[in-house]
Write a structure and sequence with these properties.
Elements (H helix, E strand, L loop, with lengths): L3 H6 L1 H9 L8 H38 L5 H33 L19 E6 L12 H7 L5 H8 L8 H21 L3 E3 L4 E3 H6 L12 E2 L4 E3 L4 H5 L6 E3 L5 E10 L18 E11 L4 H19 L3 E5 L11 E9 L4 E10 L3 H6 L2 E3 L5 E3 L1 E9 H11 L7 E2 L5 H4 L3 E2 L4
Parallel strand pairs: 2-7, 6-12
Antiparallel strand pairs: 1-9, 3-5, 4-5, 7-8, 8-14, 9-10, 10-11, 11-14, 12-13, 15-16
Helix pairs in contact: 3-4, 5-12
The structure holds one RNA strand of 92 nucleotides.
Length: 426
RNA sequence: GGUGAGGUGGCUGAGUGGUCGAAAGCAGCGCUUUGCUAAAGCGCCGUACCUGUCAAAGGGUACCGAGGGUUCGAAUCCCUCCCUCACCGCCA
């Protein structure tokens, strides 16, 4: 949520930054300003009347104490009371309207973000490693996985419909090994605290991390829209400290969580849907940070490199892309996507999206910290996958496939997986 | 699911219709005294919003779990809901 005071004081600046997203959101600014002016007018008048009522009520109390008549004053206050009822309703409505509108205005992209309409304008900021030189026929993860029975998409569909994965045998074990490997890496070497959160989250939390109200059709809801299946651990973990005031000495907070993620993927039918690349349920390791305004961009760099480390240790080629203004997510000011190379797709697959939301989410969830001067400030929140599993799984088996159809796993997984290769159905 | 107890400021905890945004204590901050430490004394010390201003000071309103109601006036009375704790039942 943008700060209404910023909108009030620098409307041109806000409009200009929003316009770089190319979504026409800047048109909402005039409406917000108009509602804000109305709201404040009713509020000021309301408060004037309340002050008057308080004053007269005290007089009535004083008169009664002295056993003097107070009928006239009481009639006066009764009349003010009626006006207050009316104005309270009007002020309340204006506030509600303003809040709802503010919830639908996206964050301002960072001042230095590359300007552009869509993903074509994203900028590759670095890449690591090289595309693997594979001997013989290059198979994609579906062929490899089917052959070695690492997952079973047809039976998953029998259970849950299309867009679900059922890992089996060595595939299930590899999934588990990767989870354990990543959790150990982030907790032991990168200093994150492990959280195992609930997967069902309340509506307020979904609003807090910006999945709602705009993207409700992409979410799985239960209990009449009061609970949702979390589409990412970002939701439960970032909201962990919602409505709190943290001590500055406790910042940054760094959390890592392993959870399944549930997404309807409405409207993305046919896009990148082959195999296990885009599904309704997938596992993910998520990194979340809560920090100060001063340090959030530094923390974004380190968070991104913490996620990259997973690919480096697994020896997978990837690149890091900075998203342009037209491609950054609704709540984000700045985002790096980490894209792993998939030999099977002959394409880079997004396995992590590392974002700094600045105070956009914190304002929605009223998450603050007390700064060095004892003043309460909205925290800055960040998150990124570290990493998303099915795509990592796909890139891994494709990159390490052998001419005979087996998979030679990177050494670092040995203690987690228990053997160096997958060469037969288990 | 049932029964009972309870939700007041960073914490503990008073307050049962009027001058209560709320006693007191603890913690925190500042000052004084003091050889150091300690202790004592004095003062300050919630949040949001509106207004005001270059900025402030200042003024005002709201908030005692949430939402309604009664009343001239509600932390206080009434209703509904939520949450926490304890015990019972059921259950992975």
């Amino acid at each position: 949520m943008l700060d209404i005071r910023l909108i009030r004081e620098k409307p041109d600046f806000v409009r200009e930054r929003l316009a770089t997203r190319g979504g026409g959101e800047e048109a909402k600014i005039d409406i917000v300003l108009q509602i804000d002016a109305e709201r404040r007018k009713s509020e000021t008048e309301l408060q004037r009347l309340q002050a008057e009522r308080n004053r007269l009520s005290k007089e009535i109390g004083a008169k009664r104490a002295k056993k003097e008549p107070s009928d006239e004053l009481e009639a006066q206050v009764r009349k003010i009371g009626e006006e207050i009822v009316d104005l309270t309703k009007r002020a309340g409505e204006a506030e509600e309207k303003q809040k709802n509108l503010l919830l639908e205005i996206p964050n301002l992209p960072h001042a230095k973000a590359p300007i552009g309409k869509n993903a074509d304008a994203n900028v590759v900021v670095r890449s690591w490693g090289e595309k693997p030189k594979l001997a013989g026929e290059v198979r994609d993860h579906v062929a490899l996985g089917t052959n070695l029975k690492l997952f079973d998409l047809e039976r998953a569909a029998k259970i849950s419909g299309s867009g679900f994965i059922c890992f089996t045998g060595a595939g299930a074990k590899l999934e588990r090994a990767l989870i354990q490997f990543m959790l150990d890496l982030h907790t032991r070497e990168h200093g994150y605290r492990e959280i195992s959160p609930p997967f069902l989250v309340r509506r307020e939390c979904m609003i807090g991390t910006t999945q709602l109200p705009k993207f409700e059709e992409d979410m799985y809801g239960l209990e009449n829209g009061e609970l949702f299946l979390a589409p990412t651990a970002e939701v439960p973990v970032t909201n962990f400290h919602r409505e709190e005031i943290l001590a500055i000495v406790d910042l940054p907070k760094k959390f890592v969580a392993y959870t399944p993620c549930f997404r309807r993927e409405a409207g993305s039918a046919g896009r990148e849907t082959r195999g296990i690349i885009r599904v309704h349920q997938f596992d993910k390791i998520e990194l979340v940070k809560i920090t100060t305004a001063e340090s959030s961009y530094e923390e974004l760099e380190s968070l991104t490199s913490n996620a990259e480390r997973v690919l480096q240790l697994l020896g997978l080629h990837y690149r890091v892309v900075e998203l342009c203004t037209g491609d950054v997510g609704f709540g984000s000011a700045k985002t790096y996507d980490i894209e792993v190379w998939s030999p099977g797709q002959k394409a880079y697959l997004e396995v992590s999206s590392c974002s700094n939301f600045e105070d956009f989410q914190a304002r929605r969830m009223n998450l603050r910290y007390k700064d060095a001067d004892g003043k309460n400030k909205f925290a800055h929140t960040l998150n990124g996958s570290g990493l998303a599993l099915p795509r990592l799984f796909a890139a891994l088996i494709e990159s390490y496939q052998q001419p005979d159809g087996s998979i030679a796993l990177p050494e670092i997984l040995l203690p987690y997986f228990g053997s160096a290769k997958i060469d037969k159905v288990d």
